[in-house]
Amino acid sequence: MPEHLELRLPDDVRLHVEATGPRDAEVTVILLHGWTLDGRAWHHQLAHLRERFGDRVRVVSYDARGHGRSSCMPLRTATLAQLGDDLAAVVDEVAPTGRVVLVGHSMGGMTVMEYAHRHPAHFAARTTGLVFVSTTAEGHTHTVYGLSPRIARLIRLAETTGAGVLARCGSWRPPRALLRALRPSIRWMLFGDRSEAADIRLVTSAVARASLRSIGGFRASIGAQHRLDTLAELAHLPAAALVGDRDRLTPPPCAESIAAALPTTELTVCPGAGHMLMMERPDEVNAALTGVLRQVLERPGLGGARTGTGDAPAAGVGTAG
């Protein structure tokens, strides 16, 4: 059974964290979900890692601030920079020793990049592998929603305007009845050629748990981030990047630019798949994650030493019940 933890950050935001495996495992895998989702998005990977690696690997997932079972936050902290700081705190409190592999989907992948950018010494001391799933290092540069550039610009304008309104709505959650009505749109935006009804329900449930402040507030930061230069400094790490060729939010050029910045990256393009690869193509995501973990486990001298740099924020952790 997973441990359920509550991590209180310096600004009093509480993160809901789940962990399985011993704290002194050889490697800790931290799974970071995407915008408006929560840690349940990784259920296929959680099961695979426990079955494949047992106690050799500790697996941690958490709900980002304003998402899932984590608390809402001040609007000024609805930024990728803050999420990078939050990840540094999670590493310190939930995986205090040993090597870490970071796995990020969409906004989660951007969070990993921000952690590397803002806390380079801390990142270098602990991080030994990377997996990027349906994410980008170039903001909305390549996002055209599978439509013509002109229509995409109009949609982006409407989305940006709407995000500003939602961001001011605080901790309110989207009405579930509205989200049920929007399931066809959610399916079109996030999934490719095929999808399971259970996956649509899970995604809809996750969006229903996200605060309107997080749904609207993170949009500007996500669209503006550019971290290819940061990635280029990480070329020595085992890494993998995956993308669906029907992804309307982070299409293949996003993963291709990540792979170009990280020349040792194994790039996987999944035909017919959309943005939710860990649900749509769990076997491919599991294989990529397994490949990176094998490299890390076979190279025991790769990273993982504490440097005492003190560049991560302090936090407290306790049992949530």
TrEMBL record:
GO cellular component, one term: membrane
Recorded coiled-coil stretches: none
Gene3D superfamilies: alpha/beta hydrolase (3.40.50.1820)
Region (Disordered): 300-321
Pfam families: Abhydrolase_6 (PF12697)
GO molecular function, one term: catalytic activity
Domain of life: Bacteria
InterPro entries in UniProt: AB_hydrolase_1, AB_hydrolase_fold, AB_hydrolase_sf, Epox_hydrolase-like
Ranges where the AB hydrolase-1 domain occurs: 29-288
Protein name as it appears in the record: Pimeloyl-ACP methyl ester carboxylesterase
Source organism of this protein record: Micromonospora rhizosphaerae
